[in-house]
Amino acid sequence: MTALASTHPTLLDITNAAGSDGKVGAVGLMAEILAQDNEILDDMVMKEANEVTGHVGNIRTGYPSPTWRKFYGGVQPAKSTYRKVTDTIGMLEAYAEVDKALADLNGNTAAFRLMEDRGFLEGMSKEMAQTLFSGNENTAPEEFTGFGPRFNSQSAENACNILTSAATPDSTDNSSIWLVDWGDYVHGIYPKGSQSGLKIEDKGQVTLGDSTNGYYEGYRTHYAWNLGLHVKDWRHVVRIQIDEEDLTKGAATGPDLLDLLAQATELIPSQNGRLVFYCNRNVRSFFRRQVMNKVASSTLSIEQITRPNGAMIRVPAFDGIPIRRCDALTATETGI
User: Fold this and answer.
1) Which of 21, 123, 255, 284 is least buried, going by the fewest C-beta atoms within 10 A?
2) Is 239 within 8 Å of 178 (Cβ atoms)?
3) pLDDT per residue as tens digits for the range 129-188
4) What region does 95 belong to: left with phi over 0, alpha with psi -120 to 50, or beta?
5) Beta carbons within 10 angstroms of residue 229's beta carbon
C-alpha cells in the first residue's frame, strides 16, 4: 500500500486491509464490485466516524488575526472560530433473491448467485453516487446530505467556490462539474466500530412468493452499506455549474470549460489528498473537443491510473487532475 493510500484510504483499501477470512473476503469482493460500477470509489477517502450514526466535527469559520509588535508593545490574544456540525450516516440496503432451481441448474450455485446479485450491487452503487452529489436530509431524511445542498447559494459563506458560466442560470437544464480534494478535509464516513460500513448476510434457502401468491424455494442475500459525507473545510471543494445545452466544441459561445477548470484549480488552497474532477459523459466529451479545437498542446492529457485491484485505466486529465465520468450528474439542475 502506498503512503497516500495508507493516510487517505478508500473503501477498497479498508476492506483489503481488514483481513482475508471468509466474511471479510466477501465484503472485499462487494467493495470491488461496487467500485467497478462507480469510479468515485477509486478516489473517495473513507474514515471511521466518531459516532455510530454520524460524525461530529468542528468546521473552521474564522482565523486568528496576528499583530505586528513593537518593542514594549503588547499583542492581543486571538483564536480561531469554529462551528460544530453533525453529518449523518445513511443506511442503504438491498435484498437479492434468486430461484433456487435456476441457481442450482449449472452446478455452481455460488457463482450464479453472485452474477445475479451484481445487478443489485450496481443499483446500490448508482444510488450512492446520486446521493453523494444531490442527497438532501431536509427533503429525504433517510439519506445523507451530499455536495449539492452544501454548495447551492451565491450568498453563502462558500459562494466564492461556486463558479458559473455567463449563460448560467437560465432554466433547469444546468449541469455541474465538481472539483474535490479528497483527504482530511473532505471524506466519506462509516459507522464507528464497523470495519467499512459494508455488510453481507447470506440468508440461505428461503421460501419466496410470486405475483399470484404461489410459493417457491429461493436464495436470499442481504446487502447493507452505511456511509455519509463530511466536509471539514469547504475550500477543498469547487462547484462549476454550466448550461449544458449551450456547450459548443469550439467554445466560441457558451461555457469555456478549460477556462472554468483553470479557475477552479486556483481556488483550492493546497492539495491535501486526491484532487479529482467529476462530470457527466456529455460534458467530458466536450472537454476533449474544446481542447482539440483550441491548441494542439494543452493542459488536457490522458493519464493512466492504477486501480486498487492493479488494473490500469485511461482517464482524461486537466493539469494532471483526473476527470472522472459520473452519470449521476444530470443536466436537469436548477440554476444557482
Assistant:
1) 21
2) yes
3) 999 999 999 999 999 999 999 999 999 989 999 998 865 566 778 999 999 999 999 999
4) beta
5) 23
